[in-house]
Structures are given as structure tokens and as C-alpha cells.
Target: Putidaredoxin reductase
Amino acid sequence: MPEKIKHFNYLFIGGGMAADQAAAGIRSIDSKGSLGIVSADSDEPYARPALSKKLWVDPEFTEDDTNFHTKEKNNAVLFLKTQVTQIDPTKHLVTTADGIQFSYDKLLLATGSTPQTLAGPDSDLVVALRSKDDYRKIRAFSSAHKHIIVVGNGYIGNEIAAGLVQNDVQVSLVISGERLYDKKFPIYLSKKYQQKYIDAGVKIYSNKRAEKYETQGDQVKVFLNDGTVLKGDGLVLGLGAKIELELAEKAHLKTDKLGVIVDKNLKTSASDIWAAGDIISYSDAILGRQNAGHVNHAVKSGYTAGQNMAGKETSYNHTPYFYSWVFDVSWEALGAVSSSLRMYAERLQHSDGSVIYYFDDNDVLQGVLLWNARINLDHYRNILKKKPHLTDLEKILSLEKVD
Ligand SMILES: Cc1cc2nc3c(=O)[nH]c(=O)nc-3n(C[C@H](O)[C@H](O)[C@H](O)COP(=O)(O)OP(=O)(O)OC[C@H]3O[C@@H](n4cnc5c(N)ncnc54)[C@H](O)[C@@H]3O)c2cc1C
Model:
């Protein structure tokens, strides 16, 4: 028999970055309604980006500094290590793996993403980085002079490889492409970026795929598709992440290939259920229907969803950006940033900064990358909004075609 049902005016499934801001959104309007946050995570909501960046390169910055203090700031009740397994939208009931039941007036679904992994046995020496627990495991196996294998050419793989090598760890980085970020950056930037890793001592295995791993005692063996076997003291996987849609699908919420479908107020197809963060399929004011697995989106959509849950009717009309930084490079991206598009560079004077403009086959602007270019992003949002043609931009900017 389930124990007594716990009721909340506002109930969140997921205690991540969107949930933290949704709590603030609710409290900006309703200071009294009860708020419960149910999270599978072992830790209170925290800044996830620090797990692959700041915690590795700033000795003054500790795990505690990443905490948002969501519970204290927003008078919330937090249930950690609690996995929700079912939502009943008709009865307004949520059930957990332990058989606990919660009822709600209004529900937020903010379950984020789960990282992809590789074939091999469960082991503390193998981490697909997403949570603080994962970060702690990497810390445990990656002291100075250990050899760590990192697989993946996305931001997680690249960031953690940079973080580790700056802690005197020997790093082998396995990437499926020719160079780091060759699917995003033009060749000259991808080369510059890769050189930072080589100079720092990272050994790069390009054009290779990791197929499986095995563990033996305190060693990991990684098998690459060309027959190479790498041996290390730990393995970090940055193979991309899959959005957590299972709960929504089981509850018959409308979904599409991008995620849980929400309207302009971030409401799902079920009454009294909103969604925010990585899992939503939403209509972006500039880019059209989108899914965005980014901090800026999690924060902004979370806050808007929270406000709407508390009774405001506000549209989510923010076009989010993605950012990353490693060594002395920082970059931000708006819209479609893919080297399969037609790319034009504006090289900034007096710095090594560049702005890359990405055009489709009709020469209409689709995305902008700011590489070491600290310029107000709103400026580029406004440009992107106008969907300019290459010839319009060439009249006002000095652009050079790049591959
Ligand atoms: C290491 C790392 C570095 C990153 N760096 C950057 C960066 O530099 N720039 C950037 O823009 N983005 C970055 N991101 C992405 C960014 O952190 C995410 O887009 C953001 O956290 C998404 O917020 P969210 O609330 O949707 O999901 P999350 O923050 O992932 O939170 C989801 C929460 O839901 C919980 N949950 C899932 N399923 C259930 C369930 N069934 N029951 C209960 N709880 C559940 C999880 O435990 C978690 O607490 C990074 C991500 C990682 C992992």
C-alpha cells in the first residue's frame, strides 16, 4: 500500500537548472503556494556547466559554489534520489519508483536529458558525464599523471579533456571526425581550437570510433573501430544526450521528435502540466520549432513556465544561445551553427576574435558563432530575426568566405 499521498500546489518532476528557475518564477508571483520538487539526482539543483569547466580550472571554486539553494530561496520541499515512474494527468497524481504518491494542482515536467553510453559493464571507472555524482567519480580516478580516455567531439568531451589536462592528467581524446568541432566551426577555427589541445599535451585519436570497453581491476580498455586498444585509468564519455521523454509518453502527452510539445506559454497538451528545459519542443520566435539543450534556454524557459504556473500568461519568446569555453577560447552560438552550411567570417580587428555567419543554400542567414568576440548577443539576435540575405550583410560587413 502506498503511504499517504503528499499534496503540493506546485509539483516539479526534475530538480535541475530549469526547475531552479521555475521555482523563482513561481515565487515572483505566488509567495504562499506549496512547492515540491522531486528529483532523481543525489544533489540539490546546481550549475551543471561547472562540472566540465570551472571546477577543473579554478582552485578557489568548490562543489558547494555550484549549488543554487533552490529550496531555501523558494520555500520548497525537495525530494532527492526519488525517481518518478508515472504521471496520471486525469487524477493529478505522480508515483515514484518507491511507491510514494504525490498529488498536485499544477505540475512541471523538467526531466532534462540522459547521456548516451557505450557497450560495456557498469563501473565507477566509466562515466557518461551529467551529474555531480559523475563529476565525483571522475575526480576519484583522475589524479595527476593518471591516463584518462575521453570519447566524443561535443562540448562535454572537449571541455572535460581540457579540464583534465590542466590538472596534469594524461588525456587521450577519441573523436570520430577529422578535427575537434569540425562539424561546427570552419576549418581555420577548428584547427586553431585543436592546436590548443595539442599544445596542452592531449593526444588526439581522430577519425576513430570507440566501439566498446572492458574493465579489469582498476584499468579500462577501450576498443576502437580500427583495432586500436587504449588502456587507461578511467573513461569519460561525451557521446551526446537523449532527452527524457518516457514519462511524458507514458502519460500520453503530445510529443514529437524534438520533445514534449508545448504552446507559447510552455503548457503541454495535458491540463495543468507545463514543461521546460531540454525536453521541450517549442516554437522559437526566430528559428521556428526547436529543441534546445542549453543552459540559457533551461533558465529562461524554466522561469517563464514557473510564472505561467502561478497564473501569469506570458509567452516564451526568447531565442537562447549556447556557450562553451576551454583554455583561452570562449564561444557562443545562436541558431544553426553547422559547417555543412555556407560560412562567412568577419575577422575582428585588434584581437583573434571572429564572427562566423552561417547561410543556407539560398544565402539566407541561419546562425551566428561568436569566437572570442565579446559582443552583445542581442545585436546578433536582431540580425538573425531579420533573416538577412548574404548580399545585405556584405553591404555593411567585411565578410570572407570560409570552408
Ligand atoms: C557537464 C555539462 C556541462 C554543460 N555545459 C553547458 C554549457 O557550457 N553551456 C550550455 O549552454 N549548456 C551546458 N550544459 C547543458 C545544460 O546543463 C542543460 O541544458 C541544462 O542543465 C538543462 O536543464 P534541465 O533542467 O532541462 O535538465 P537538467 O538540468 O538535466 O535536470 C533534469 C533533472 O531531472 C531529474 N530527473 C530526470 N528524470 C527524472 C525522473 N523520472 N524522476 C525524477 N527526476 C528526474 C534529473 O535527476 C535532474 O535533476 C551542460 C551539461 C552538462 C551535463
Summary: Residues 113 and 244 are 5 Å apart (CA to CA).
